[in-house]
Amino acid sequence: MGTLEIRELEAFLVLAEELHFGRAGERLYVSQSRVSQLLKSLEARIGAPLVERTSRRVALTPLGRTFLSSLRPAYEALRATVEEARAAARSAGGVLRIGFQGTVDDELARAIALFEERCPACTVDVAEIALSDPFGPVRRKEVDCAVVLLPVAEDDLVVGPVFSRQSQTLALPARHPYAARESISAEELADYPLIGIQDGAPDYWRRAQAPQRTPAGRPIPAGPRVNTLQEGLSLTAAERGAMLLCRSSAAYHGGGRSSIAFVPVEGLPDSLLGLVLPRTTSTPQARAFARALDETLTESLPGRA
């Protein structure tokens, strides 16, 4: 099948509403014969008639009705996407404020660069979000969207692209017996206090970042609670406990820290990041950035050029 022409789809959609070639042509600002030509081309691509024509009436075939029911929502979604992109492009002098937890990795950096290329008049501000308040900055409109650790189960927020799947790593005091290990098992988390997160974050989210039990059900001793990653690492260095973090954060913060060891943990679910936006009040810039991030992630999939 050749390249699909959007004009053919538009001609079919208008004709399906008007059921009259002349009126369809008037709406599309083309001749009646051009509408007929576009329809014939579309039918040739599909391989069967979509419309029945007689001297008295125009009607959809059964296939035409089925095709219409699938095409209309897809076309409306495509049109809405284009309008959102145009709205974002028109936002001259606007600002996109992105919050993030952990580190700005390569995927996120590429998405920001793509957004800036598409919306050169929009300034991008990036701000770190406290571990203890992953969703507050979005709700308070301090940022337009935020990259946070999953899970997210908030009714007023929607999760956009999900990315950066990584194994988890345990930050340990350098003098801990496990510090020299190549890896530890999730069950061995029960052997040392685990640094948690302050109460500003929902319970389910805090438990996901600092579980209370091992996969087999052994209780994990609770260590001190912190607001930020830096606080957690400082307490780790002071031998007050250990802290779970993703592999990229461990690599970023591991350089030059002789007082902390970072050891991979086997048997825990992988860490994931997600882009979070307000469900009903997201800005055009934030939605445009979500699309840029999604495209960046798609392009980085294995097998793509």
UniProtKB/TrEMBL annotation:
Q: Where is the HTH lysR-type domain?
A: 4-61
Q: Name a GO molecular-function annotation.
A: DNA binding
Give the UniProt entry's GO cellular component terms.
protein-DNA complex
PROSITE patterns reported for this sequence:
HTH_LYSR
- What is the top-level taxon of the source organism? Bacteria
Keyword set for this entry? DNA-binding, Transcription, Transcription regulation
Recorded hits in InterPro entries, A to Z, give: LysR_HTH_N, LysR_subst-bd, WH-like_DNA-bd_sf, WH_DNA-bd_sf
Pfam short name (any one) = LysR_substrate
Q: Which PANTHER family match?
A: HCA OPERON TRANSCRIPTIONAL ACTIVATOR HCAR, TRANSCRIPTIONAL DUAL REGULATOR HCAR-RELATED
**What does the sequence similarity comment in the record state about its family?**
Belongs to the LysR transcriptional regulatory family.
Please state what the protein is called: Transcriptional regulator
Which source organism does the UniProt entry give? Answer: Streptomyces cyaneogriseus subsp. noncyanogenus
- Lineage, uppermost ranks: Bacteria, Bacillati, Actinomycetota, Actinomycetes, Kitasatosporales
